[in-house]
Every structure is written in structure tokens, then in C-alpha cells.
Amino acid sequence: MIMEDFGAQVASVWAGMRPHTRRLIESALQSPNYGVARALPATPYDSRAERELSVLLKALDERAASPSSNALLNAEQSRELKRMADACATLLQNQAQSAEAFAQLIERAINTHDYARIDYLADTISGRLAPSELCELTRHAAPAVRAIGQEALSQTSTSTLVNLLGDQVDAATAREALERQAKDYGSDEARWIVSALDRSDADAEEDEDDF
């Protein structure tokens, strides 16, 4: 592959990547199922590889979405650009453990109407993201990403959500998830906790009124 064929931005990102990450992509491109949304063999989490794959995928997708840039590519180069982007997305979905990376993959799958990948991502989010990252996903700007994050967070254990109530950033998000568990899933435990929180809020308001 000649990265310069894909534009200066892609070539610059590729040149700045570690050899290890570049080898991952080259190996994925040799696999017949490189673009399929599927579970890959478990590998140790590498936050730097996740970031490098995310940045490269963004550069590839931006190049593919630019009509003026694509006019400079021949048919073979356009196919190779798509192949590399799909391989990069598959590798990223296997590495992703951050809300940012999952949001990028979900938005990309929505834009490309890749419903199999959307389902795969939705099914794997809960097992891959820490509770705080799930909360972050529910606050994403894109409604579809928020909806997937909210559904995943609602299926998190009630005890995990209770632990998040002490976090200044995630407390409100965790409470909303508890309310969904109580209302939509009929959880008695969540209903009891929500009632206790409501009573606590009412008591706090009364105390403020007394002053």
C-alpha cells in the first residue's frame, strides 16, 4: 500500500503510528473476514493502539467522504481506501474500551447502514465499557449513540448504578438509569432506591424552606 495515494492526512497519521499497530492493520487486510462485525480473539487492551486506530479511521472516513478528494482516486485506490477503513473499524471494535471509540464506531455504522455492526456493538458495550464510560456514552451529542448507551446502562446491575450515585459527574445519569430500571424493567430494588432518593430530595427541600 502507498499511503500517499490516500492523501497527505492519511499518510501523516500512518507515518506517526507504531510499527505494532501498522502490523495489526496489515494482518487484518490479509484476512478474508476483515470487514465483518464479529468477535476476534481476545488481546490485551492497548490504549495507544485504540487511539491510533481511532485517528486513522477518522482520517480514512473523512477522505472517503470528500468528493473533491475522491475525484483524484482511481477505482482501485477507492476500493483499497474502503478496505483499509473497514479493517481499521473491525480492529478498533476489538480494542475499544472507551466511550469515544464506541461512539465513533456506532456513528460510522449508522452512516454506512451497517446494521450487523450496530447490533454487534450494542451487544458488546456493557461487557467492554466501565460504568463511567457507559455514562459518558449516554451524554453523547448524537441521539442514536445516546439511546444505545442508555439501553446498555439500564441493563447494568442496580448495585453498580447505586455506586455511581456518589460520583458528582455520573450521579444524575445513574439516577436516570435507576428510574428506567424501575419503570421499564419493573425492578423492585430500583423502585425502592428511587423512592428513597425522592424522599431524601423532599426532605432536603423542606429543610431549605425552614430557613
Order of helices and strands: HHHHHHHHHHHH
Global morphology: elongated
Separation of the first and last Cα atoms: 72 Å
Count the helices. How many?
12
Helix content: over 70%
* Biggest beta sheet summary: none
Strand content: under 5%
The secondary structure category is mainly alpha
Question: What does this molecule look like?
Answer:
This protein is 73% helix and 0% strand. It is mostly helical and 211 residues long. α2 crosses α5, α8 runs antiparallel to α9 and α11 packs across α12. The longest helix is centred in the last third of the chain and has 23 residues. It is elongated and about 70 Å long. The N and C termini lie far apart (72 Å). The model has no long low-confidence stretch (mean pLDDT 88).
Short description:
The protein has 211 residues and is mainly alpha-helical. Helices cover 73% and strands 0% of the residues. It has twelve helices and no strands.
Could you give the topology of this structure?
Layout: H1 8-15, H2 19-29, H3 47-64, H4 67-70, H5 75-95, H6 99-111, H7 115-128, H8 131-138, H9 143-154, H10 158-164, H11 171-184, H12 188-210
Helix pairs in contact: 1-3, 2-5, 3-5, 6-7, 6-8, 7-9, 8-9, 10-11, 11-12
Features:
211 residues, 12 helices, 73% helix, elongated, mainly alpha
